[in-house]
Each structure stands twice: as C-alpha cells, then as structure tokens.
Fold this sequence. Notes:
This protein has 402 residues and is α+β, with helices and mostly antiparallel strands. Helices cover 48% and strands 10% of the residues. The protein has helices at residues 9-13, 67-82, 87-98, 101-114, 119-132, 146-160, 162-182, 211-219, 224-236, 240-244, 274-285, 287-293, 317-320, 329-344, 348-354, 374-396, and strands at 3-4, 23-27, 33-37, 42-50, 53-61, 251-252, 257-260, 268-271. It has a five-stranded mixed beta sheet with strand order 1-2-3-4-5, with helices on one face. A hairpin with a 2-residue loop joins strand 4 (42-50) and strand 5 (53-61). Helix 4 runs antiparallel to helix 5, helix 4 crosses helix 7 (162-182) and helix 14 packs across helix 16 (374-396). The longest helix is centred in the last third of the chain and has 23 residues, at 374-396.
Amino acid sequence: xxxxxxxxxxxxxxxxxxxxxxxxxxxxxxxxxxxxxxxxxxxxxxxxxxxxxxxxxxxxxxxxxxxxxxxxxxxxxxxxxxxxxxxxxxxxxxxxxxxxxxxxxxxxxxxxxxxxxxxxxxxxxxxxxxxxxxxxxxxxxxxxxxxxxxxxxxxxxxxxxxxxxxxxxxxxxxxxxxxxxxxxxxxxxxxxxxxxxxxxxxxxxxxxxxxxxxxxxxxxxxxxxxxxxxxxxxxxxxxxxxxxxxxxxxxxxxxxxxxxxxxxxxxxxxxxxxxxxxxxxxxxxxxxxxxxxxxxxxxxxxxxxxxxxxxxxxxxxxxxxxxxxxxxxxxxxxxxxxxxxxxxxxxxxxxxxxxxxxxxxxxxxxxxxxxxxxxxxxxxxxxxxxxxxxxxxxxxxxxxxx
Length: 402
C-alpha cells in the first residue's frame, strides 16, 4: 500500500482518484492514519490492533470534514484503541440499541418471509405487540429494560390473562434474537428476567357420552350461522379463526373440498365428508343468512362485524345452560382428534393432515415416503364423521337410521 505525507490539504488534493476499486494511502508521520481513495471520494480512516485483532474505522469523508479534524479524531481513536476500546463494537452496539422496537419488528418480518413461515405467526406476534406494548414501538431497544419487561408481563397477566402475557413476551424475545444476529453487541433479551406463567395443557374435551346432549344444545341455538359454525368445528376440528373466516371462494362442492390458502402452519386442502358437504349446501341456501347478508355473501359464517365474519363465537348465558359441560371452540378441536384416534383409529399422519397439524420430523426415513392422496384422507374424514353420527344419532335420535 502506498504511503504519503498526509499533513496538508494539498497532500490530500494531490492523491489521484482511481477509476475502479479503492486505493489506501497511509500517513508517514501519523502511523495508522490513512485515506481511502475511490473513483469520486476520499475517506479518512484509522487502523490499529485492538486486543490482537486489526480494526479499521472510518472517520469521515474529505469535504465533509477537514484534514485537521480527521487527524485530531484519528489521534483520539488510536488512544482509545491502545486502551483496549473497540470503536467498531461500540458503533455496532449503538446501532442496535438505537433501533426501535418497530424497526426491529420490520427486520423480524423479513426473517419470517425468508423462512416462508405462515403469515399467521407474524399476525399473532404483531397483534400482541400492538395491543399490549404499543407504547414501546417507537422506543429504542436500549430503553426496554429487564425490569420493564417483567413488570409489563405481570400487568398483561393481571388484566388480560396469562396466555396473552406469555405470548407477548415470546414475540418480544423472538424479535430481539433476530436483531442480535444482525447486531451481536446487543445485550440479551429483557425477557430473561420474565417469570413466565405456567401454561397447563388445555385438556377439555366433549366426552363420547356427552356428545348427544352437546348436539341437542347446539341445535337449540336460534342463530343458524353460529349453530352451523359450532357443528362444523366439531366435525372438522378446524382452528376457530380459520373456520370463521372461510370464504365461499375456498369451497368446491363439486369435488367436495375446501382449500385454506393461509393457516397457522401451511396452505392445505381439506376433503369433506358427505355430512360436511350437506352442511355447506344448507349454509348456502339458508334463508336467514340470505335475508341478513344477501345471496352473494362472501363468507360461509358471516356476521355484522368489521371483518365480515363471526368475530367471537361465544354463547350467551341461556345457551350455556343447554350444554352438558363448559367448552370452547378449541375444545371441539380436541374432541375431533380424540374421536379420530380412539374411536376410529386412523393413522397419525391422517389425523395430523386433517386438522393441519405439522408432521413431526422423524429419524425414520421410511416415514418420509408416506404421501396420502386426497381420497385417502377423505375416507378417514368420512370415518370420523360416521363415528360422530353414531355417537349422536344413537342417543339423540334413536328413531332415525344412521
């Protein structure tokens, strides 16, 4: 690398620009001080070893700062570097700490896109951050302390429940760790100080002998849209939000299929049993629905809500009394899987595919060779439907054939 006496403005002006690439000129009297010359610009730099590692730090572009300012700053930096201070590490730490939570979220969204994760994951993270930590979004990460994270977690838990509190801190932790990969100097996530609430698995299920009474309770609901939604959830095990937001454009009654383009895991096509096809046909022809929302309504389970579909499928007090036990939409998902495994005994692969659960990675190479076709899954779907009908019809409508 060439050397020159970089002590006057004329010395800097005389350094020739290079047509391509860069050329480094080093000062003969101030060791470690130099100028990087490109096709259009000249930039002052300083270089020195810090704890056994070479560090080159940009000081500023010639024209933006003077030679005298650059030399003075170079001497300051070299003094710090002699003392073991790494200016590059400090700059990286400053960049990380000055990044706001909203900027960190944008970085994390890119991570989700690159990994082709379900949009539902990002939507859920953003919903929790925006709902419970909106006052943090424009705050630098450095200002989100461990104490603040733990206090916010307790507050959310008290006001909105432990599941919401835990989910919010999980989102914050995931976003923080993505920033750490870009800025290793960023400290550990403040969630390390969070005492996460214990989440016990939700084991509620409509037992086999309760199904007839549950069915009668569902059919006593006056609103046919909510009634059909509950029955749909039981007979399919579909996730509540994915079921509530079904559009008619997703339904193909001729082939007996329902396509979900966006889910918590990945897009999938659900084969329908005869009962489910009949349920959808009755939904399409429902006079109540047509009178309320028109014959060209977009959603299968419409409502007068911002989204256009049922937002919260809750029972009112009188309706609750008509059922044999407390339950939620997720209870019905548990019930479907329980029926499929214990009363029908379909394969684990079929069970997972029907409810769109991810197939776990296995060390068994043979398992990866199993690729069920839609008709294979339809037979399993029909078998589960028949099991539900057998349990319900036998006791609720003993006079009717299965």
